[in-house]
Design a protein that fits this description.
The complex is a heterotetramer of chains A (97), B (727), C (428) and D (189).
Chain A (H helix, E strand, L loop, with lengths): L1 H21 L3 H26 L2 H31 L13
Helix pairs in contact in A: 1-2, 2-3
Chain C lengths: L1 H9 L9 H37 L15 H11 L10 H19 L8 E3 L3 E3 L9 H9 L2 H11 L3 H32 L4 H11 L2 H4 L1 H14 L11 H4 L9 H26 L18 H26 L7 H32 L7 H23 L6 H20 L9
Antiparallel strand pairs in C: 1-2
Chain D lengths: L1 H30 L3 H21 L3 H26 L4 H4 L5 H24 L2 H4 L4 H10 L8 H8 L3 H22 L7
The chains are: A mainly alpha (97), B mainly alpha (727), C mainly alpha (428), D mainly alpha (189).
């Protein structure tokens, strides 16, 4: 069961990565990042069966970080949208050197 | 004492009030928070309103001081608007802490204290192998220190209510003082060296803040900085010692280190190095040669601060540390000899300077340095109980002396203040004959003087005698005698130590008697106008003095030597501290309790009494208070007097040897050559040019497309992961 | 087979837990029975709402179909099924169909973890817990699932391709997130006392310690208000406010799909009432007695406690309906500031106070069940209740000066009205 | 033990069912054009993961997963999507071209291969502590104080207390940041 869980975790993480690479909608990319976090959480929980509850504690931390990230990230996206009227990352290149 | 860890709940103390020990440091912290908030809320004009402010260092006219007088002609200046709350909170938390300390002490007397009581509060730094908890270590040694800190601290807080009442920075003062007590309690209760170090640094900070309490005057601020910097040099030693401990023992818990230190070879390099570096830390904090010069300058702070921090508690932290680390020190006889020798040299050196000082607080400051030297002699020769005993009694009589001098200064300053005179309120040449004006202070200070001089049955006699006896006993039969320091056999070194200690005991008696004679006896030299204003200080100041006087007189009963077993229970403190330092002390004395023939011991005690009496008698015989003239009329001194009055020109020597060359070299080579030429020219501008070039190149890579960045990032991750996978 | 028989015989004692197989079998039976009863209750709550509303408004309400209108829900159901389903243009079909189910299911699932009676001894099988699923994290489960209720409303609003529906959905999501936090926080106090997140443990804690409503009145108050807001009913019915948004998120729905939303609402009412009962009113505990809490368990006890439980829940269902027909609707900004600026800070402060109190009492080594512990908690609770109501009241009732002013103002108005004959009805 | 066999069978079935559900939903999530639909698929993934957590004996984490991820974070996502009304055709066509897809797939496969290889090379057997069985037996024998969340709460509030407190600071900072960013600047000068 552990091996399967870790494999699933790797698969989900990869799907998240591919999503980040292929999509251009900022919110979707953001959700892909959440998926990656979830994948990592899965391996934490799976390994916590071996190493005690510390893994689950880390999942709690991950969730807190994810929540903080969602709050700030979405606020940034809203601010960008207000400015540019789009969340398509291709049209957002203020950081161009 | 094998400090075997026993679980927290299993200790007999866990079921008593001692589990509230975490409240001890918390109470002063609470006081600090409250007073600090009040201080911030009611920021007042900061100025030298303290009696000793205009005399502490400047010795003369203070520019702008006349303006200070203008607004509060003869009346009391308005007290701080929060003065009432602060007067309640500041000493209040100390009273509560002291009450708790007494309760814990009582609980501790009721149980078997074979093992120390460890109370882990929370996990502090779980970093890799280093797993540090915030642990409180409660054992007889820390209990003794807690009693001294909270007890004497409480009295001094109460005294401060009177002494500082008119100061515009009243809440700030109490905030600092409370913070100091917090850190001091952290220092003595810390269960690991890093935690102890937090307290160690914290008291240093508070000392700095309080020395420079009237920071609007440069001299005071400079004195604070000097104390701070000299302490940093010592702290470097402490830090190195801690790093060495972690490198060699893999732990920083006090008990864990002690346990592992016992496994080391006797006199090995590791133990010696750690002990010497620890001692370097102690020389800074406890004002030993060569880092002692900050302590006399620290007298720039308010006098109660001098009493609490620079006499009773903080400066003794070094002694505490050596006793705390007795497990390491006892494995390193060479380091112990060093400690004893440095202590003895400091005791002698400072005593000679004390002979010729005119500033009453400076006399006491050098006396403190000298007495601290004594304590180091004691802990250096492995007589830890004697050292701690002297620490305790010294806390009593030196606090009494400082507070007494504070009340003298307070009264004198008030008198000068009334007549708009700007004479120095701390110079003994401006005092004299205060006996009739301040009878309570006068009698109490004489008690303290007799105690410090070593007159029998006063507390100082017992502790000092025990130190001298211990040194003598170890000359013949101890690990120290077998070791050698710089090619000199340990026995010889100890003989030198003993000689220096005896000589400084004699000088102690002389300069203390001198101070008393010049201050309280003979005709009054304050001035015609001021004389009617001289009167006893208010009760809130004399009250603590009376309590301290009682402690000074009877503190010796804490640890009565076997020789005088007739007057009370023998060796109370010794039995109390036995579980903590007993093993280390026995290690130094080769496993047997040090024992001198009865006749030898009697002879030593007789000699000590003779020295004390002779010193005082010599002072009374030679010094004629009537012949003194007020400071403004006094001629410049010459010859050896001048050297002693200027403290052997050590400060000037330091300036010539270290400070000025550093400044000059910095100015010419470092500033003009290195800084302006190489750093500015080559590195700053050159690297800026380089950075700009690289930046331009880099900016070409910045597409601004987050997607692209993600791609690049991912490819990097895959490369790294690949390298990690298929290596 | 003999092995299984021996297992069966072994568990024949009705005071012991059943075997695994029996456990699963009875779990299924419980789930089925609970589902049926629950659906029935939801249906009859609609009738109750209409009858109570009529009673409050001094009219009769539906009383024609069957005895006193008892067949009305069935008639309504039939009517809803027979009606034509409409699918507006431009909707996202999948989500449009999914949304009603998303609204209904969470309310029902939540109910599964609430214990509703003392354990039932079944002869030859064993002791059956009277809860559909006694989850070890039961309480967190209710919180988690109830936080999902927002999806149905939001998705419905979004997928309808209708401006008003979207606004309703947005309002609903904002409102439900806001009040969910206050709700969760208010229950932390309960958990502090219970020391467990299993709802059965919470119930048994209350049996030992007294009902939480007495010890944690403020938490109950916050929880009740937040639960009311979570159901999107008056005075918190902003998402479907008829006068502003026509019908809000379900403006585009019709027939059975539409009626899923009101059903979800009633399901929510029942679930919220059950939760209030379980968390604050002792669950199935019969007050002032202890015989119902102690083994040996009997069928009589099960029936009695279940009756107690049902009557408690019914009271709160009635209270929900009562409130709806009494209180006017909030303004949206008022709703938000009540959630974020009043309930949440209050809940947080209350947690701090309760936690400190529990810590202090534990430190003083007082037994949780002892009179001293309960007395101290009760005393603190009283102080808080008085304080909060004094603040909320803003001196209108309690402070004499203010109430006198109020009375004067009313009198003045009355005098004006009399002069213009508005009250006496003599005028135009 | 028939019952146990039944249990383990049901367990395995549940595990694979939810695992495959998570996988399928994740794939659906990254391929949906419609943002709301994608979000709903992600919700589904998170649900399936919560179910997996229950199978892995992490009931508390499962509840938190639903409560935090599904009930809070994803709702906020949905809220923002609806607030910005991202149903516009120009927003929908957001994927890269064919080559981009192919390349991304390649990168993903490479990464998957590496992670899998990593899992295999440092075999999981090697990671299993030797005294696992004894530890598990001991854990099963000792009654859990504070129900099922006791074992999670104990390290959280003892070993990782500082980190826990710092997390609260992080959340506070995030809240402040979100408010500042989200606030419409009224006095644009």
């Amino acid at each position: 069961m552990l091996v399967e869980a870790l494999a699933l975790s790797a698969l989900l993480f990869t799907i998240g990565v591919v999503g980040v690479l292929t999509r251009r909608n900022a919110i979707i990319i953001f959700m892909c990042v959440e998926l990656m976090l979830n994948a990592v959480n899965l391996s934490f929980v799976a390994l916590s069966k071996l190493y005690g509850a510390a893994g689950q504690v880390f999942v709690v931390f991950t969730m807190a970080v994810a929540a903080a990230e969602a709050a700030v990230g979405l606020a940034i996206i809203i601010a960008i949208f207000r400015h540019q009227r789009t969340v398509n990352l291709q049209n957002i290149n203020l950081l161009k050197g | 004492m094998n400090p075997a860890m026993i679980p927290e709940g299993a200790h007999p103390l866990a079921a008593t009030v001692a589990r509230l020990v975490w409240l001890l440091p918390l109470l002063p912290l609470l006081g600090f928070l409250i007073n600090g908030t009040l201080a911030m809320l009611g920021v007042a004009k900061i100025g030298p309103a303290d009696p000793s402010a205009n005399g502490g260092h400047g010795h003369g006219e203070v520019p702008g001081h006349a303006d200070e007088h203008a607004h509060d002609d003869h009346g009391h200046p308005p007290r701080h608007k929060f003065a009432k709350i602060v007067s309640l909170v500041g000493p209040g938390v100390l009273v509560a802490a002291f009450a708790l300390a007494v309760a814990i002490f009582a609980a501790m007397r009721g149980v078997e204290m074979e093992h120390p009581y460890l109370l882990t509060l929370f996990s502090w730094m779980p970093v890799g192998d280093l797993k540090l908890d915030a642990t409180i270590l409660l054992d007889p040694l820390s209990m003794t220190m807690v009693m001294v800190v909270t007890g004497v601290g409480m009295l001094i807080h109460v005294f401060s209510v009177g002494y500082m009442q008119d100061d515009p920075g009243y809440p700030r003062y109490f905030a600092y003082l409370n913070l100091f007590v917090f850190f001091m309690l952290l220092l003595v209760l810390g269960g690991s060296y890093p935690l102890l170090f937090v307290g160690w640094e914290g008291v240093g900070l508070c000392s700095y803040l309080l020395i420079g309490f009237w920071f609007s005057e440069k001299a005071n601020a400079d004195a604070g900085k000097k104390a701070f910097i000299m302490n940093r040099i010592g702290d470097f030693g402490f830090l190195v010692a801690m790093l060495l401990m972690f490198a060699n023992f893999g732990t920083l818990d006090i008990l864990g280190v002690a346990e592992q230190a016992a496994e080391l070879p006797m006199g090995g390099v590791i133990a010696t190095t750690i002990a010497l570096f620890l001692f370097l830390g102690c020389t800074g904090k406890s004002a030993q040669i060569p880092l002692y010069t900050w302590l006399p300058d620290a007298m720039a702070g308010p006098t109660p601060v001098s009493a609490l921090i620079h006499a009773a508690t903080m400066v003794t932290a070094g002694v505490y540390l050596v006793a705390r680390a007795s497990g390491i020190f006892s494995m390193a006889p060479v380091a112990q000899l060093t400690v004893a020798l440095v202590g003895a040299a400091t005791a002698f050196f400072a005593a000679t300077i004390g002979l010729k000082q005119w500033d009453i607080k400076k006399v006491l400051a050098y006396s403190t340095v000298s007495q601290l030297g004594y304590m180091f002699v004691a802990v250096g020769v492995g007589a830890y109980v004697a050292g701690i005993f002297h620490l305790v009694t010294h806390a009593f009589f030196k606090a009494l002396l400082f507070l007494g001098s504070g009340s003298v200064i307070y009264v004198l300053h008030a008198a000068y203040h009334k007549t708009h005179n700007h004479d120095d309120a701390q110079d003994m040449r401006n005092m004299g004959g205060l006996r009739q004006y301040m009878p309570i202070t006068f009698s109490l200070m004489w008690i303290a003087t007799l105690a410090i001089a070593g007159i029998p049955l006063f507390s100082g006699f017992f502790s000092k005698d025990e130190i001298l006896t211990s040194v003598f006993a170890r000359i013949s039969h101890s690990t120290l005698a077998d070791a050698s320091l710089l090619g000199m056999p340990g026995g010889t070194v100890l003989m030198i130590v003993y000689g220096l200690a005896v000589a400084s005991a004699l000088m102690t008696a002389i300069y203390m008697a001198r101070m008393m004679l010049y201050t309280f006896h003979g005709p009054n030299r304050t001035g015609e106008g001021e004389r009617p204003h001289l009167k006893e200080a208010p009760w809130v100041m004399t009250g603590p003095l009376v309590v301290l006087g009682a402690l000074t007189a009877f503190g010796g009963w804490l640890n009565v030597p076997a020789l005088l077993g007739a007057i009370g229970p023998v060796g109370g403190l010794e039995h109390f501290l036995e579980p903590v330092v007993g093993e280390a002390a026995l290690r130094t004395t080769l496993g047997v309790a040090p024992h001198l023939p009865h006749s030898t011991e009697l002879m030593l005690v007789g000699a000590a009494i003779f020295i004390a009496v002779a010193g005082i008698a010599f002072a009374v015989w030679r010094l004629k208070p009537a012949a003194l003239v007020p400071r403004k009329d006094a001629p410049e001194s010459t010859g050896i007097d001048r050297v002693l009055e200027n403290k052997y020109f050590v400060d000037e020597g330091y300036a010539a040897a270290f400070v000025n060359p550093t400044v000059n070299a910095s100015r010419t080579v470092l500033w003009k050559g290195f800084d302006a030429g190489i750093i500015d020219g080559l590195f700053v501008n050159g690297s800026a040019l380089l950075a700009r070039a690289f930046g331009w190149m880099g900016s070409q890579l910045q597409t601004g497309q987050v997607g692209t960045y993600a791609w690049v990032l991912l490819i990097g991750v895959i490369t790294l992961l690949g390298a990690f996978t298929f290596r | 087979m003999t092995h299984a028989m021996s297992l069966l015989l072994q568990a024949a004692n009705p005071q012991l837990p059943p075997t695994d197989g029996m456990f699963i079998l009875f779990g299924l039976i419980k789930a089925g029975a609970a589902f049926g009863i629950y659906m029935l209750c939801v249906a009859y709550t609609t009738l109750a709402e209409r009858r109570v509303a009529a009673w409050i408004q001094d009219r009769l309400g539906p009383n024609r179909v069957g005895w006193e209108g008892f067949l009305q829900p069935i008639a309504d159901g039939v009517k809803n099924f027979m009606k034509e389903e409409s699918m507006p243009g431009g909707v996202n079909k999948a989500l449009f169909i999914l949304a009603p189910a998303l609204a209904f299911v969470p309310a029902m699932i939540t109910w599964a973890v609430i214990p509703f009676a003392s354990p039932l001894p079944v002869p030859g099988v064993g002791l059956i817990d009277m809860v559909v699923a006694d989850l070890p994290v039961g309480f967190l489960f209710t919180l988690a699932i109830s936080s999902l209720g927002v999806y149905g409303v939001t998705i419905a609003g979004w997928s309808s391709n209708n401006k008003y529906a979207l606004l309703g959905g947005l309002r609903a999501s904002a409102q439900m997130i806001s009040y969910e936090i206050a709700m969760g926080m208010s229950t932390v106090c309960v958990l502090l006392l219970a020391g467990n997140v299993n709802l059965s443990a919470v119930v048994s804690q209350q049996q030992a310690q007294g009902w939480n409503v007495l010890l944690l009145t403020l938490a109950f108050f916050i929880f009740a208000v937040a639960a009311l807001a979570e159901t999107n009913r008056v005075p918190f019915d902003l998402p479907e406010a008829e006068s502003e948004l026509i019908a809000g998120y379900h403006a585009e729905y019709s027939s059975m799909r539409y009626s899923m939303f009101p059903l979800a609402e009633y399901a929510n009412i029942i679930t919220s009432s059950s939760l209030i009962v379980a968390l604050f009113f002792g669950g199935w505990d019969i007050p002032f007695t202890t015989w119902d809490n102690l083994p040996p368990w009997t069928i009589t006890k099960t029936l009695a406690t279940m009756g107690m439980y049902v009557s408690k829940v019914m009271f709160f269902v009635f209270a929900f309906i009562w409130l709806r027909w009494t209180v006017p609707r909030f303004r949206y900004d008022q709703l938000m500031s009540l959630g974020w600026k009043v309930l949440l800070p209050m809940a947080l402060l209350y947690i701090t106070a309760v936690a400190s109190m529990v810590l202090a009492l534990d430190y003083a080594a007082l037994a949780r069940e002892g009179m001293a512990f309960r007395g101290a908690m009760l005393g603190m609770n009283l102080v808080f209740v008085v304080l909060v109501f004094w603040v909320l009241d803003r001196g209108r009732i309690i402070s004499p000066a203010f109430s006198r002013l109020e009375r004067e103002r009313v009198n003045r108005l009355r005098a004006v009205a009399e002069r213009s004959d508005l009250l006496t009805g003599k005028g135009a | 033990m028939q019952a146990n066999q039944f249990h383990s069978l049901a367990y395995a079935f549940g595990f694979y069912f939810f695992g495959l559900l998570a996988l399928a939903s994740a794939i659906a999530f990254v391929t949906r054009k419609n943002t709301v639909a994608a979000a709903m698929w992600l919700v589904n993934v998170m649900f399936a993961l919560a179910a997996l957590y229950v199978m892995l004996d992490a009931q508390f984490i499962a509840a938190m997963q639903v409560l935090v991820y599904t009930g809070a974070i994803m709702v906020v996502f949905l809220f923002v999507i609806m607030l910005l009304n991202l149903g516009h055709p120009s927003e929908l066509a957001d994927a890269r071209g064919k080559w981009g897809y192919l390349l991304a797939l390649l990168v993903g496969l490479a990464m998957l291969a590496e992670v899998m290889a990593l899992n295999r090379s440092r075999t999981i057997e090697k990671m299993i502590p030797p005294d696992l069985a004894a530890r598990a037996a001991e854990a099963a024998a000792t009654p859990m104080a504070g129900g099922i969340i006791g074992p999670v709460a104990a390290p959280l509030f003892k070993e990782y207390l500082l980190a826990f407190e710092l997390t609260s600071v992080l959340l506070l900072a995030a809240i402040v940041g979100a408010v500042v960013l989200g606030k419409r600047r009224t006095d644009a000068r």
